[in-house]
Design brief:
Layout (H helix, E strand, L loop, with lengths): L3 E5 L12 H14 L3 E4 L11 H15 L4 E5 L5 H14 L3 E5 L8 H13 L5 E5 L1 H4 L5 H7 L5 E6 L4 H11 L4 E4 L2 H9 L4 E4 L6 H12 L3 H8 L3 H6 L7 H9 L19 H10 L7
Parallel strand pairs: 1-2, 1-8, 2-3, 3-4, 4-5, 5-6, 6-7
Helix pairs in contact: 1-2, 1-9, 2-3, 3-4, 4-6, 6-7, 8-9, 9-10, 12-13
Length: 294
């Protein structure tokens, strides 16, 4: 089973918007050395919406190759077209990923039956383990718990990333599934609590800048060590909040640049972090012990 700290890895770019392969490889090595359990390539945080298909698959391939079996790799392969999602997922399978992350089809707002048929169709046409991804704040469509329970009958649908941020709903889903499918948090602010209630890990933005701390936090939560979880999570609280002062991944890329890990560049329509917010994110990095005070 996939479990533990799963970083939703950024896709570093240079100032011309070209994917920075050298920086990407360094990020992979850093994440692995810090104890990250799974690297999620080209999800929302990886700017999947701005990469073309060739770039998307190139990043997946490079992450798989650089990981070299040291950790598991999950590729974001969702799309609002079922056929496009199938093509991306099949291609990622050929590249050797361990699982694929499938976001709910965005913009076209399918019904619950449409969502069920979409994911069922994909699962029936690939052999790789599939993780559903529900993030209604991004997609404009919500995958209801009842539909997730229906999808749990399909053998290679093995988990769901719950990025609703609704802790009670996530707990209800864990209870309803009765272990038939893993639930992963997709919301750093509530991840520790959800793992203590039975979630199997956290697909994390915060882990981009604090991989060791997130790995330790997830390990403690999965072992039910409540006091240790509180101790480890406390210095990360500001990061969980302030890495979202603008749309993800704008703040986390600025933070990684401040840490001298990457350049802060993104692609339009994303723009650099507003100058007035630099101090906000910097204070969060300082609170987590990731920067030295000047």
């Amino acid at each position: 089973m996939l479990r533990g700290s799963m970083v939703a890895l950024v896709t570093p770019m240079d100032d011309g918007g070209v994917v920075d392969h050298a920086a990407l490889e360094k990020l992979v090595d850093w994440q692995i050395s810090a104890g990250t359990d799974v690297i999620v390539a080209v999800g929302t945080t990886g700017e999947s919406a701005t990469l073309n298909v060739d770039e998307h698959l190139d990043v997946v391939q490079r992450v798989v190759q650089r990981s070299a079996g040291r950790v598991r790799v999950m590729a974001g392969t969702g799309a609002n077209s079922t056929q496009e999602a199938l093509e991306l997922t099949k291609a990622a399978c050929k590249l050797g990923v361990d699982a694929c992350l499938l976001v709910t089809p965005y913009y076209n707002k399918p019904t619950q039956e449409g969502l069920y048929q979409h994911f069922r169709f994909l699962a029936e046409h690939v052999d790789v383990p599939l993780v559903l991804y529900n993030v209604p704040g991004r997609t404009g469509v919500d995958l209801f718990n009842e539909t997730v329970v229906r999808l749990a009958d399909i053998p290679n649908i093995v988990g769901i990333k719950d990025a609703t941020g609704q802790l009670g709903r996530g707990i209800d889903l864990i209870h309803a599934l009765q272990g038939r499918m893993a639930v992963y948090s997709g919301d750093d602010a509530t991840a520790a609590a959800l793992m203590l209630m039975g979630a199997q890990g956290n697909i994390s933005v915060t882990a981009n800048v604090a991989p060791q701390a997130m790995a330790l936090l997830c390990k403690a939560a999965l072992h039910g060590q409540v006091e240790e979880v509180r101790r480890l999570d406390a210095p990360l609280r500001a990061l969980h909040r302030d890495l979202f002062v603008e749309a993800n991944p704008i703040p986390v890329k600025w933070a990684l640049a401040r840490m001298k890990k990457i350049q802060p560049d993104l692609r339009l329509p994303l723009t650099p972090l507003a100058e007035g917010l630099h101090a906000v994110v910097e204070r969060a990095l300082l609170a987590a012990g990731l920067l030295e005070c000047d």
